[in-house]
Specification:
single chain, GMP Synthetase, Chain A, domain 3, five-stranded antiparallel sheet, five-stranded mixed sheet, 15 helices, alpha/beta, globular
């Protein structure tokens, strides 16, 4: 067994709940603003947030909510999302977060599978929730703002809880986010207080979040990247957030300029916008020193273009919902194209050949296996899926093909299940997409493999023209010939209006493949 160890300073594993970790990191300056609602400008201070969390936790406890119960949140980013999340955690219950863009069918599945008793929902989403309650255990829907026929969060406020309701911080699932669902039905990922707290502390070692930073939070809080790497890690470092309910480039740029944001977490689609949109030139973004992209691969050319245009460092991180989510972050001092970074503290890695099961040595590549305090407890109600992902001795099999360079930085070659085999040769979609995105007339790109009688599979590219540009598909041949070996070049190119992606920015290749095969 060949184990790659983190070279970063180890953290102390805390016997502490995620909300107490937040309270500790926010400090004792009660009037400091920590959360701002982007659309309205409403502010929440340290003192106000702590009091609201404790009082809402008291109200939940008065309704009989505690350890063993699951409470769902269905809302876009706003200050009360963070309040609701931590009130549920403080009351000893489990939070399951839902995508606000879900259909009633998708909401019903998660509510039923998670066993949620209560839903805290944005008032505008009541029609979806109401249509999703059949065959679930939900007994009440509470709204974020007043709505006829429903109690609101303000109505729930009660005598404050003085302390965290006792739970086993290492074994109690405090969060139950659902995996992206790019393959099969989404699965609930059971994350403990220790998982979340450890990853917050790991991120603090690897990423330079500074007390007093005011960043812009458009990454959805329902997704683990926005939930723990952004919401929890920033607040627990004494930083603040401007909450955006959805991403809008002009509004985002305005918030950055107004609040002089220094460090911002983004996803690849936003990196593309920052690299190519003319709106960027109309705003003062000179305060940005560091951008970190995660949730999906970011091509080196796009990263370089963003860094050059904004005059900032552009780095990547790597992780999964099953790792709370971060296992690797590129050091700010050594941003390397195509790398996702150093292993975070207290974390071990292996590279395992998916065919032979043997460990790769230095310089080799294999499926990335990760073990550390941030690795999930397992999947909810899915023992078979858990057993196929977690080994008995705690290794999480990521399903990503990876390699380490000589200095310990990791590069992700691609998802094993997404690799395209052309006449026995492996083609990584992310590599082809990165080269396509380097073309000045291409705004976005996705590559899938489709069946081919001769080669087994062939790559097909879906391209979105860059705004204001005309894309001539016939002219791409010479360009691609300079970038890619012949077997890697797309055999077919389709121009589309948009690439289907999850809320976290991952390309939904199964959707593209279904559309292609369906004609």
């Amino acid at each position: 067994m060949n184990i790659f160890h983190s070279t970063l300073p180890a953290i102390r594993l805390r016997d502490q709940g995620i909300t107490d970790r937040l309270f500790e990191g926010m400090g004792d300056a009660p009037d400091r603003v920590v959360l701002i609602d982007g659309p309205t400008g409403a502010e929440l201070t340290v003192g106000g947030m702590k009091d609201r969390i404790r009082r809402l936790a008291g109200g939940l406890q008065a309704r009989g909510i505690g350890p063993g119960d699951v409470v769902a949140i269905l809302a876009p980013n706003c200050p009360d999302f963070a309040v609701a999340f931590h009130a549920i955690a403080y009351a000893g219950a489990t939070v399951t977060t839902l995508n606000p863009s879900y259909t009633a069918h998708e909401v019903q599945h998660q509510l039923a599978d998670s066993g949620a008793r209560l839903v805290l929902a944005h008032a505008a989403l009541l029609p979806v929730v109401s249509a999703a309650l059949h065959d679930t255990g939900v007994t009440e829907v509470i709204t974020f703002s007043p709505a006829e026929g429903h109690a609101s969060l303000d109505d729930l406020l009660a005598d404050p809880l003085a302390a965290q309701v006792p739970v086993d911080f290492a074994a109690h699932p405090v969060a139950l986010p659902y995996s992206s669902g790019t393959t099969g039905l989404p699965k609930g990922v059971r994350l403990s207080h220790r998982n979340l707290v450890s990853n917050v502390d790991q991120v603090h070692v690897a990423l330079n979040i500074r007390p007093g930073d005011m960043s812009v939070a458009f990454l959805p809080f329902f997704h683990i990247y926005g939930m723990n790497t952004l919401m929890n890690a920033f607040l627990a470092r004494g930083a603040g957030l401007v909450c955006m309910p959805r991403f809008d480039l002009e509004a985002f740029l305005g918030h950055v300029a107004r609040h002089r944001s220094r460090l911002v977490l983004i996803a690849p689609p936003v990196a593309l916008a920052l690299a190519k949109s003319p709106l960027v030139d109309q705003h003062d973004v000179s305060s940005i020193e560091l951008l970190m992209s995660g949730a999906a691969p970011l091509g080196g050319d796009v990263a370089a273009a963003v860094g050059a245009r904004l005059g900032c460092q552009m780095i990547q991180g790597y992780g999964m919902t099953e790792m709370s989510p971060v296992s690797h972050i590129v050091p700010e001092s050594d941003p390397r194209p195509g790398r996702v970074g150093l292993t975070v503290p207290n974390t071990e890695c292996r590279l395992v050949d998916p065919v032979t099961g043997q460990d790769a040595g230095p310089g080799g590549e294999g499926e990335l296996w990760v073990r550390g305090p941030q690795v999930m407890l397992g999947y909810h109600n899915a023992p078979q899926a858990t057993a196929s992902t977690l080994t008995p001795d705690g290794w999480l099999m990521t399903g990503d093909l990876a390699a380490f360079d000589d200095d310990g930085q990791l590069s992700i070659r691609d998802r094993l299940k997404e690799l395209i085999k052309v006449s026995g040769f492996q083609v990584a979609p992310a590599e082809v997409e990165a080269d396509l995105l380097a073309h000045p007339d291409i705004g976005d790109a996705a590559v899938i493999g489709v069946p081919d009688d001769q080669a087994g599979e062939r790559p097909v590219a879906f391209l979105v023209p860059r705004a204001g540009h005309t894309l001539h598909v016939d002219d791409l041949g010479p360009f691609l010939a300079e970038q890619l070996a012949s077997y890697k070049r797309p055999r077919e190119i389709r121009v589309v209006e948009a690439i289907p992606k999850s809320a976290s920015g991952k390309i939904l290749r199964r959707v593209l493949k279904a559309q292609y095969l369906g004609g």
